[in-house]
Design brief:
single chain, alpha/beta, Rossmann fold, 8 helices, 23% strand, globular, Methyltransferase, methyltransferase, S-adenosylmethionine-dependent methyltransferase activity, transferase
């Protein structure tokens, strides 16, 4: 059995027991596939991981940077209390339209707002609203801007908030200090920012599975 097949089989075992998709999640994936959205959504077990992180945080306010078809948004939104709030930022109007339908079908339209436009334009507008601090920020957008997103996340959170950055391993390419690939440059800059920032305590975890070899970085906001 090849390594990748083994990863797939182990993912299936864990997912089938611990984080099975329901109809709303399956429909979100089907609609994303039908609309030819990129295959960049988290897996079911990763979605459940994010949901558990939000619940451990007792999160009432979540910020997501990168909505895509709303699959991870649904997992995160389900962690919120009835008076919670999730704001998700999506560059593509097409993606946002599909995500909004998927979120509504999951019964989360009262809790979730999808805002359309480049995140680096949406984030200053959000900050201008002087919102209550976010308890959890999930960053899963264009990787070249990861350090900018981490900086904005820090501005919009509080002591004890959690910042999660997806896809930080890049199939191992994150090791290449000489790379000029934007996703690697941005990811390395975000990791180095987390390492050096006096108000962040972070780590990174490598993952393997049905989406290949990648991982998450996580940072807790310090006083």
């Amino acid at each position: 059995m090849s390594g990748s097949q083994l990863w797939d089989d182990v993912d299936f075992y864990f997912t089938s027991h611990l984080s099975p998709d329901d109809e709303a999640l399956q429909a979100a994936l089907r609609d994303s596939e039908a609309a030819a959205l990129p295959h960049a959504n988290v897996t079911a077990n990763q979605g459940k991981f994010l949901q558990l992180l939000a619940q451990i945080q007792d999160a009432r306010r979540i910020l997501e940077i990168g909505t895509l078809g709303g699959y991870s948004t649904i997992w995160l939104g389900r962690a919120l209390p009835a008076d919670g709030r999730l704001i998700s930022l999506e560059y593509s109007a097409k993606h946002a339209e599909i995500a909004t339908r998927n979120i509504a079908r999951a019964g989360l339209e009262r809790l979730v707002e999808v805002r359309v436009g480049p995140a680096l334009e949406s984030l200053p507008k959000l900050a201008d609203e002087n919102p209550a601090p976010f308890d959890l920020v999930f960053i899963d957008a264009d990787k070249v801007n990861n350090p900018n997103y981490v900086e904005w996340a820090l501005r919009l959170t509080r002591t004890g908030s959690l910042i999660v950055v997806d896809n930080v391993v890049r199939g191992g390419r994150v090791l290449d200090a000489e790379s000029d690939e934007p996703d690697v440059v941005g990811t390395r800059a975000a990791i180095e920012l987390i390492a050096a920032h006096p108000r962040l305590s972070g780590t990174a975890i490598q993952t393997v599975g049905s989406k290949g070899y990648d991982g998450f970085a996580m940072a807790r906001v310090l006083p």
